[in-house]
Specification:
mainly alpha, Helix Hairpins, 156 residues
């Protein structure tokens, strides 16, 4: 009788162990999905930052193009100064040149501000890419560990 109870006790231990393994196996797909989502979120965050940098680069190029056009206006206006006959025309031309130069100066400052923002974003992006690389490596290690555990549980 005692031998049968011990056998039943061992059988119960095995059943509990199998139940535990089955519960773990059910948890693995959820854990893998969570890891995939985490990986996806990190990649999307980096992609958004890259898009922002590209947008700022485009803005900078547009402003530089506008600045070049305005500088050409100044050159043309300065060239007209030699053809001016009256003092009134000369004063009007000077005030026009000053206004354009002032606008150009503001645009140059804006271009510099955008360039500073781009540089800062690039530094942050570089740092974040390193962090994400480390995070992705951890995710992959965790994924491999889960796969090994799944294989072990499958054998058991």
């Amino acid at each position: 009788m005692r031998a049968q109870l011990e056998l039943l006790w061992e059988l119960q231990k095995i059943d509990l162990g199998l139940k535990s393994i089955e519960e773990e196996k059910d948890r693995y797909p959820k854990e893998m999905k969570r890891l995939d989502e985490k990986q996806k979120v990190e990649k999307e965050r980096i992609d958004k930052e890259k898009e922002k940098i590209e947008s700022l680069e485009k803005t900078r190029r547009q402003k530089e193009g506008q600045l070049n056009l305005e500088q050409e206006k100044v050159k043309r206006a300065e060239a007209k100064m030699f053809d001016v006959k009256t003092n009134k025309e000369y004063q009007a031309l000077l005030s026009e040149i000053d206004a354009v130069k002032e606008a150009n100066s503001r645009m140059e400052e804006e271009i510099l501000r955008v360039m500073d923002e781009i540089d800062e974003l690039k530094r942050d992006l570089s740092k974040r890419e390193k962090d994400v690389g480390t995070t992705l490596e951890k995710i992959e290690a965790e994924r491999k560990k889960l796969q090994q555990q799944m294989a072990y549980d499958e054998k058991a």
